[in-house]
Amino acid sequence: MGVSEIGIILYALIRLFSFALIIRIIVEMVASFSRNFRPPRWFTLVAEPLFAVTDPPVKGLRKIIPPLRLGNVSLDVSIIVLFLLLGLLSTVVVRTLV
Asked: From residue 20, how far is each of 10, 27, 83 by CA, in Å?
């Protein structure tokens, strides 16, 4: 397996993780905006592994970057920073492939 194959696999994993992070954001928004949210069984089966995969880097960044307080609202900036880091990492991987 050459360097280009490893780079392609790494790039695909970064993109897949970014997609999982987007789904996580949607799940968190649905749960937070719906006061009477009772997830169906299939939803829990999808969300649980999703959170298990995305939790370690998000929780690690939350220890470093506290939520941004805007009055009564708290904005979690760690996910945005994680997106920026993933974008930077994917750019580095693509540039090393070319």
From this structure: 15, 10, 11
pTM of the model: 0.84
Rounded CA-CA distance 66/94 in Å is: 31
Structure tokens at 96: 């090393």
Q: What would you measure as the largest C-alpha separation in the chain, in angstroms? A: 53
Q: Which residues of the chain have pLDDT under 50?
A: none
Q: From residue 24, how far is each of 6, 18, 27, 38, 49 by CA, in Å?
A: 27, 10, 5, 17, 10
Q: Are strands 68-70 and 73-75 parallel, antiparallel or unpaired?
A: antiparallel
Helices vs strands, H then E, count in the chain:
3, 2
Residue 90 to residues 3, 49, 54, 58, 84: CA-CA distances in angstroms? 15, 23, 17, 18, 10
